[in-house]
Amino acid sequence: MSSATSTSPEQSVDLKNRWLAASLALLFPGLGHLYQGRTFKAAIYCVCILGLFFSGQALGEWKVVYLGDSEAGGRFAAGRGVVKRLLQGYAAQFPVGALAWPAVIQSRRYQDPSNVGRAELDGPLEAPFLGGIWIDTPEGPKALVDLSGTVRLEPNGANVRGRFVGTTHDGQPIELALGTVTDLGQKVSANEDRTLEARLGEIPRTIEVPAGARPYFKGAIPRPFLDRYQVPLGDQGEDILTAKLGGRLEIAYVFTWIAGLLNVLAIWDALDGPAYGYGTEFEERKKRRRRKDGESPAGSPDETARRPQPAGRAL
Amino acid sequence: MPIPALFAGDQLWYLVPLTLAVSLSYTASRYESREVILWRAASFFWKTLLFMSIIFAVLYVLAIGL
Fold this sequence. Notes:
The complex is a heterodimer.
Chain A: E1 4-5, E2 14-16, H1 18-27, H2 31-35, H3 39-59, H4 75-78, H5 82-93, H6 102-111, E3 125-137, E4 140-156, E5 159-168, E6 173-184, E7 193-200, E8 216-222, H7 234-245, H8 247-272, H9 281-293, H10 301-306
Antiparallel strand pairs in A: 1-2, 3-4, 3-8, 4-5, 5-6, 6-7, 7-8
Helix pairs in contact in A: 1-8, 3-8, 5-8
Chain B: H1 3-8, H2 15-30, H3 34-63
Helix pairs in contact in B: 2-3
């Protein structure tokens, strides 16, 4: 492809390979302009667009960039409901570039039929644990003792077994052999915590268990960042986040949307040059006219009347 | 509600970086000259904040007594 220049008569902008520049701008804000040697604009786009994108995500606890929701689960894969899901905001976030694109992969991972809460493991797992020993009572589940420590799980045939090492809420060391794991939350989810529930073998005698009660081990392990970043929130997750952040969540979404929309302007600028020209045309035209005419002083009523409007007056 | 109390909440302050980013990026997409971009972005920024302040003041006055 041949190089191109913007059409400004006074000062042209070398756009080099404009389609490559536009592609780079789409890939990463400012990269296309950097390729074209327009470093000042590259810096503006990079700082402003990525600043908005990342601060928006931080405001929304890194949960506001995602494709689709749980209600529409599976529709994307089936080729239906795409427009509905895009209109939920991701269409505006997508142009930010490669930093927003993992959401497409995460959406597919999240909606994969195998991504359900279950009691299976692909391999050994060791993670910090926060939870406790619980019993069921007529009034509902009740914690006998709070625990924090490390849990180690490993596949055991069709089941999962493991061991917990840590301390109780009053600082007493405790070690527990876990029986069959009955529930292990989804591998991929926007929630930071992955639920874990298991039967218990023997428990220390220091913990008093009411007669007839069957204690069980229940709590959560942290979900790795890559298993929760840009993963669809789902209806419930969105409700929880809204209740927690209130209006700040809306601002977080708006920041990421506007970041994407601003990059559309940047992509267009990389492809076609500045919309109103170099910006100094008016001054140059005025100088030329002065040199050519050599008479009427600038700002005289006559000149003011026929003065061309500077490009971008619409601002 | 007194006006300072309205600003005590963090939400209105988010408008400032948002407006700054929008004015810089938008103006950068219109012009090429560094001086023109900065000058017009500053103008865009203040005009936008002024406009939003006027809207805010109008809404605030209308909300008195509600």
